[in-house]
Amino acid sequence: MVIDPGRAFGTGAHATTRLCLELLQDVEPTSVLDVGCGSGVLSVAAAKLGFAPVTAVDIDEVALEVTGENATANGVAVEVATELRPASLGVMNIALDVVERVLPGLPVERAITSGYLERDEPRVDGWQRLERRVRDGWAADLHERG
Questions:
Q1: Which of 10, 99, 106, 109 is most buried, most CB within 10 Å of its CB?
Q2: Cα distances (Å, whole numbers) of residue 29 to 25, 38, 59, 107
Q3: Positions of E strands within 1-146
Q4: pTM of structure
Q5: Closest C-alpha to 9, from 85, 123, 71, 94
Q6: How confident is the model over 87-102, as pLDDT tens digits?
Q7: What would the pLDDT profile of 120-141 be if each residue is shown by its tens digit?
Q8: Which of 1, 24, 25 lies closest to 93, judged by CA?
Q9: Alpha carbon of 36 to those of 86, 130, 136: distances in Å?
């Protein structure tokens, strides 16, 4: 996988990204919504793992442009959008407060979240944690509506 972050965030080397990738590898490929896609590393990885359709969402037009370029460079299909769309699985590698604010209204059944420290734990009504992974003081969680 080749990722050029350009002017967007995310090279794939950070522990939170790696944890999200580990969790993605352990779930059944389905439709995925990458919220706050940055450089598109998680979108591209999901598409390479067989997830489809893959939709990358960000409020930053540069991030959407870079995600599209990285998807093309890797020969995968990723749709870029500025609004949330329904999917079976959501992926969010963003700050804890954003996870807690966005997750309740996210149109998905399950979600992989990260971007926060191991000591932090997303608290969102209507969601239960199924699995947690930690690395270098950072954490990622797999959640399910429940």
A1: 99
A2: 8, 21, 26, 17
A3: 32-35, 54-57, 79-81, 89-93, 110-117, 127-135, 138-145
A4: 0.90
A5: 94
A6: 999 999 999 999 999 9
A7: 999 999 999 999 999 999 999 9
A8: 24
A9: 15, 22, 22
